[in-house]
Amino acid sequence: MKLFKRLSILLAVLISSLILCSCREDIKSMTSQAEKSVSEQAQSTEQTPDTTRAETTEEKTSSDNEQKNSTETISFLFAGDNLVHDTLYNQASRAAGSDGYDFTAIYEKIAPYIKRADFAVLNQETIVTDDFGPSSYPTFASPTAVGDHMVDIGFDAMSISNNHVLDYGIDGLISTLTYWKTKHPDITVYGAYESKEDQDNIRIAEIKGVKVAFLGFMEHTNGITLADEYADCVTYLDEIDEVERKIKKADELADVVIVSPHFGVEILNEVSDKQYELAEKFTEWGADIIVGCQPHTVQECGWVESENGNKAFCYYCLGNMVSAMATCQTSVGILGSLDLTYDFDNDEVTINNPKAIPIVTHISGSYQWDVYVYPYSQYTADLAAQSQVEDMSIENIKYYLSFIPDEFLSIE
């Protein structure tokens, strides 16, 4: 019995040991599985942020590449001399019932061309101020209503680099700059300045994200000079080193450079050798578009290529946008129109579809003249016959337009 009892106890202990070992193995297995699961979850948790960051970086890189590879196209419109003789401001005074000035009728037929452009530039041939005048040839000062109306019909920039900008000396210049700065601060005004510091502040307009620099230079200011302390308010074309410095500086600061030279022989349709020479230099130094005025009549336009491979488009002279000079030759002008595409990725400028859209200044009436600007496409032989300009005719208009290469002449 004792032996059987001992054997029973020994068997019970053995069974208990086996059960305990089995439980420990299950627990160890369960623990191992749990640890493995926790480890996998931890690894998964650690990997998730990295994956997210990778996706974000990839998206950002894609976005950056998209931005760098994108292009923008800007439609430009350039108009020639807004030469406001007394005939024009007297007409505007009559239109307003002698209560101020109303210039609407003079420009309304060409206003749609100006408004449709992304950016329109005018050569404002006279100072705009109410502190002097109004006055006409040979010393011009136009009422500020002229400037207000130019903004109303869509101009975004004013070149004032011309021979009449100092007609009233430094006081007249400061007065017109003050008007533009206080009344129309969003308008880009360039070509004459308040001081050397102001001149060194190259005017740059951002258009659709493209930085466009504007520079203006003149051949002369009708013999009027400034005191030494104001000498840097204007830059003459014979100051060639300074002209070069400014264009190169503008090319460094901006994506596109537009230069407005007041050059050429007055009342002459042929381009001078000096104009050709300067246009090539401007292009070599970084100009993309060159917009000339001064001869008061149309001259050719075309591509300019410099020896260093740079290329620009040049309007050698747009002629008058409007005046009362009263000859057919000075009544025929052009609106310059072109599309400029800028490639942000490659820093490349491409000019497409350059046009010369002809316009005609019509003068009617006898005792009191009225002046209106017409697109040439709307100017008829009957209107020409009614004109107070003696040599006005469709045939003569066509002759002056023959100086424009056919590939750029656009009757619209």
Instruction: State the total count of DSSP E strands.
Output: 14
Determine Rg (CA atoms, Å).
37 Å
Assembly annotation: single chain
Examine the secondary-structure arrangement and name the CATH architecture.
Answer: 4-Layer Sandwich
Mean pLDDT: 88
Largest sheet: 8 strands, mixed
Which CATH C-level class is it? Alpha Beta
Roughly how much helix do the residues carry, as a percent range? 25-40%
In CATH, what is the homologous superfamily?
Answer: Metallo-dependent phosphatases
Could you say which structural class the secondary elements and strand pairing correspond to? alpha/beta
Distance between the termini: 131 Å
Enter the CATH topology name.
Purple Acid Phosphatase, chain A, domain 2
Number of helices: 12
Shape by Cα distribution:
globular
* Poorly predicted regions: 1-66
Number of domains: 1
One letter per element, helices H and strands E, the order comes to HEHHHEHEHEHEEHEHEEEEHEEEHH
Please state roughly what percent of the residues sit in beta strands, choosing from under 5%, 5-15%, 15-25%, 25-35%, 35-45% or over 45%: 15-25%
Question: How would you sum up this structure, described in words?
Answer:
The protein is 39% helix and 23% strand. By secondary structure, it is of the alpha/beta class. Strands 1, 2, 3, 4, 11, 12, 13 and 14 form an eight-stranded mixed β-sheet that branches. The chain has a six-stranded mixed β-sheet with strand order 5-6-7-8-10-9, covered by helices on one side. Helix 9 (273-285) links the parallel strand 7 (256-262) and strand 8. The protein has helices at residues 2-69, 86-95, 104-107, 111-115, 144-152, 169-183, 196-200, 240-253, 273-285, 328-331, 381-386, 394-401, and strands spanning 71-82, 119-123, 157-159, 188-190, 203-207, 210-218, 256-262, 289-291, 301-305, 311-315, 320-322, 332-343, 348-364, 370-375. The chain has one domain (72-401): Purple Acid Phosphatase, chain A, domain 2. It is globular and about 55 Å long. Mean pLDDT is 88; it is low at 1-66.
